[in-house]
Description:
The complex is a heterodimer of chains A (314) and B (296). With 314 residues, chain A is mainly α.
Amino acid sequence: MLKFILKRLVSLVPVLAVVAVVVFLLMHITPGDAAAVMLGPEATPQDVDALREQLGLNDPLYVQFFSWLGGILTGDLGSSPFLGESVAEALWSHLGPTLSLAILAQAFAILVAIPAGIIAAKRRGSLLDQGFMGLTILGVSVPSFLLGLFLILAFSVGLRWLPVAGYQPLSAGLGEHLRYLILPAIALGSMQAALIARMTRSSMLDVLSTNYLKTGKAKGLGSFSLTFKHAFKNAALPVLTVVGQTFGSLVAGAAVVETVFNIPGIGQLIINSVDRRDLLVIQGAVLLIAVSYVLINLVVDILYGLLDPRVQVR
Amino acid sequence: MTTFTPRSPLIPSITAEQRSLRFKRVRDNSQVMTGGIILLVLIVVALLGPLLSPVGPYATDTANRLLPPSAAHWFGTDNFGRDLFARVVSGSQVSLVVGFSVAVITSVLGLAIGLIAAYSRAADRILMRILDGFMAFPAILLAIAIMAALGVRTENVIIALSIVFTPYVARVVRSSALVVKEQTYIESLRAQGASALRILWINMTPNVLSPLLIQATFIFADSIITEAALSFLGAGVPPPDPSWGNILFDGKTLIFSAWWMTVFPGVTIMLAVLAINFLGDGLRDLLDPRHRGTRK
């Protein structure tokens, strides 16, 4: 097991190296002078020179890369000329809403998708099955920001049940927190729900046709015990992988949904930084999300190895 | 892994009978037909758009702001009194051009990278690690970051999305090409002294075209969605040029007074994406023998 984990850790090194190079280069693919672009057309040449000096843009590229990398490894992502605070602080203060949203979306996806997938598999070919699978096609085809807009139109503008946009932190009370996050969570979680439901269904179908379940049935085990205790336990592994893999993309998707619902998370920070062309904040945020995405996948892989020893051999 | 049937260069091209059989399979595949027809209608409307709406997408008419749908304005008007139908149609031109360009560019780059990786083990190691690194970024996020660095312009949307999606094509090409490479006829060609370029281009490329085409179709759909999302976020097609995404952004601020600014462009995006996904799924059933008849 230790060997498996070590092997996975080593395989991360090249991936993270490429991630670092790509994020670093973002500052350098800007047409013209990145410092001038960041400060806009009204900046004085002195200001531009000062920022260029501060960012170290006058140094040779490899010197810049290693000093930048050194900064990152010590948690120094630079300091935004617009926010008046360090990028790390800005990211930290915007992290809460994004995590809240991503976790809630994941919870929604799991709670809806796994029962739906199991029912669809049990009643394969029925109207219910076809209905669920039709919904999943819709789920993967409707982008989250669009679904968000439709949900606002239906539940906030039409029925007036829920707020149109905004955010209340958990400290304002769980009810209030959820009231603001429920539509964004559904908008964000629907694509995950569709993927998880499809995976649950096909994985359950594989297990349901095995002989040990037929034996169980012949022995007279109840349908409930058969489905959940015996079948789902074995069908759960691929489902777990999808859940883990999609959680990483949820964090990224949250960035888009936050903009729809005006939630002050990392996504909104990124989008505001695009307007300002605050490349330092964008570098920091992209790095943070990409690295967490990689790490989440690592954890899922290791969990998978723990749960299914066959994986370790591969 | 199952293999793709290699087409030996010695066998003559298909007969007329085979061709009509193949056409029948296409016709009988309801997904390809549904997706294809919807997509065709969208393309025709996008091309004929200027003829269908008397006023252009940029013509403002402040006396007629925020009018609901009517016979004169099928989709209503926006906050500048511009005809929403004209803008959605014009936006579909942008979406289709972006989607198509990205699909073509990623196919060419992905084919080259995938084939090289499959052919040379040394190149494979380096290329795959680089692709892994690119794929560690969630697509939309990398696209936003590249747009922020390059600047908000329609051409840059195409560049950004091509960078983001090329790894996905390259991976598919590589894995198909690896299977093809192990076929005996490639081995015999190599034994006869055929050059690497000749084997790659003349003998391997035709055999990876089916999976490439299927993947390109999905990239087409993903590009349209991502372009809409980027434009919605203000990191895509800049206003006043209409795009589905930036019309939705304008609609969001007016969601209480003008539902049509959200519903019409939104439903159009859904239709386009559903159609292309149907087409892709259907093509996979037609072209990839592994999926034929195995759907659960």
